[in-house]
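Known limitations

Structure tokens in this collection are predictions and should be treated as such. Users comparing against experimental data should check residue numbering before alignment. To illustrate the layout, the record for Sulfur oxidation protein SoxY is reproduced below. The input appears on top and the generated tokens appear beneath it.
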Amino acid sequence: MALGLGALAAAFVLPKVAVAATDDAIAAFTGGASVGQGGITLTAPEIAENGNTVPIEVSAPGAEAIMVLAAGNPNPDVATFNFGPLSGAQSASTRIRLAETQDVVAIARMGDGSFVEARQEVKVTIGGCGG
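Generated tokens:
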């Protein structure tokens, strides 16, 4: 019975911890500034058969940096891509690991100092972080 209660508590506590970690990472990246929509494109599959290797692509013309987060992972920080004035394009693609079905979040810091966000839910059939 104790194991069942422990599992039930973990099911309710861990998602809140992951959301708090995601919110903290966003606040650190934006310095607490408001985040708008549009101007950034996040491409990820709707369904990932294996969470160990999920392809994503982000693009935000005019961005200085793009941060990618996996909101449901134990450690949500995935990557931050920085672009200099000589960058040919402000885009990047990579493969990430997702523990479970969750939102992938991309936030771009634009050249004018504003921030924009894109989110996409990815359904994971086999978790990539030990799940």
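For this record: The radius of gyration is 16 Å. The first helix runs from residue 2 to 30. Please report discrepancies through the issue tracker.
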